Protein: Rieske domain-containing protein
Amino acid sequence: MTPRRPLLIRLDPCYADRGRKNPDMGTTRKHAVIDPATGKIDRGIFSDRAIYDEEMEKIFGRAWLMIGHESLVPGPDDYFHTYMGEDPVILTRDGQGRLHALLNMCRHRGNRVVRCDDGNAKRFMCAYHGWTYRNDGSLEHVPGKSEAYYDALDFASLGLIEAHVETYAGLIFATWAKDAPGLEAYLGDARWYLDTVFNRRDGGMQALGPTKWLEPANWKTMVDNCSDNYHVPTSHLSSAAVQSRFLGRPRLSHDDQFRSPNKHVFVNGHAITFRDADDNQPRYMHGVSTETMRLFEDYHRATTPEVERRLGTLRARRVQLGNHSIFPNGILGFRLALPRGPLKTEFWHFVLLERDAPEELKRVIRIGSQANNGAAGMFEQDDVDNWRQVTEASTSRFARRHKQDLSMGVGHAGPHPDYPGLVSERYISENNQRLFYMRWEQFMNADSWAGIPLDPIRARFDGTATMRG
Ligand code: FES
Ligand SMILES: [Fe+2]
Structure:
C-alpha cells in the first residue's frame, strides 16, 4: 500500500488537532462530515432536516449575523425588518439613536408586531390583542392591565426578545448568544481585508435594496461558492463572452485563473479572495465597461490618497478584495443567504455604495450590480443552476453513499509574510471550502462559545480606519 502523503498544510491551532475526539470538550465528535486530509465531504449536510434544525440552533443561534446597515435606519425611530436565520427581527433605532435587534414575536401569544419591510414608528402594537411595545423593545401598554390581569403582569420581563448588536463600518451584526465574543474578535483578521471594501471612505457607505428571491438550494452551497474561482471560466463561459463582446472585458480562461497571482485566504471562519497587484488600476466592480472605465479611473485617482490615509499603503495600493464570505451566511459584500429549510434559501441582494461617490458612478454600479448578481443577473443565473443541482444530488439516498470531493490543493496553504490568515499557494484552490466545513463542524460540535476557537488578531491595521468606520 502506498503510504499517504504527509499533510503539508500548516493548520491554524483551531484546526490542527482534529480527530474523533473533541480536544476542547474531551467528548466524541457528533458531526465529522469532512475529512481534511482527503477533502471528502458527506452530502447529507445539504438536505438532512435534522442537521438543518441543529444548524438553526448551533450556528444561527450563536454566530454574529449580518442583519443590516446603518443607512437603512438613518434617523431616530426608523426601523427595518430583517432576519436572523429563520427568525424575523425588527432592526430599530430608538429615539436616542441606539440600535436594537428585536424578535418580531409578541410576548403574549406570538403574533408579529411589525408587518412591513421598513418605516418610522415610536411603538409597535400587536394586531391580535393590542399589547404595545416601545421601539427599544420594552412593553408599554396592555389592554386590561388592571381589569383583566389584576395588575399582576410583570411588564419588565415581557419586552420583545432582544439580540446583542454591534456594528462594523456601518454594517450591523447581531447575535442571540450571551457568551459570544465581541464582533471585533469574531471578524478577527478578516477585517484587514474587509476594510478594503467596507471601510475605504471617511463618508462611509449607503445600502440600497434589498432585492429578494427564493432559490431551491441549501444555504451552504452559495456560501462555499464564494471561494470557488475554479468554476468561473466554465459556468460563466457565456456570461463572460457577453461581457467581452459588449463591455470590452478580456476573455477569461482556465490558464489565466491557474497562473493568477491573486490570493485565496481563510481567516477566522471567513473566506477571502483578493487581487494582489500594485498596477494602480481601479478595483473591479460591476458596472465597469469600456464606456464607463473613465469614471472608475477618475474616482480611483481622486480617492486613493484618502484610502491610503485610512488603510495604509499596502492595503490601499495592493489588496483588492474579490469574492468572499463572512461566516455563516454573508456573501459577496452585503448580501445574505437566509436559510428557509434544508432545500431552500431566500437571497437578499443589497447594493452598497460609497456615500460620497459621484451620482453618475453610483448609477453605473447599481445597474451593473443588478445585471451581474441581481435576481435576473447573468452570473447569478449560471450559479443558481449549480447550487440547485448540488443540493438535489444530496437528496438521493443512493447518491449520498458517495461523498463530494473537495481535495483540490490539500496540503498547499500556510502563513504568508505579508498577508494574514491561511493563504493558499494558488488562487484556484478548495482550501477555503474545506475550512468552511471544518468551521461548520466546530459550531455544530460545541456546547457553547467556550468550545469554539477564535484566532487572535495578529494583523497590523495601518491607517486611521477603525471598527466604527
Ligand atoms: S398575541 Fe399579541 S397581544 Fe395577544
Ligand atoms: Fe459564479
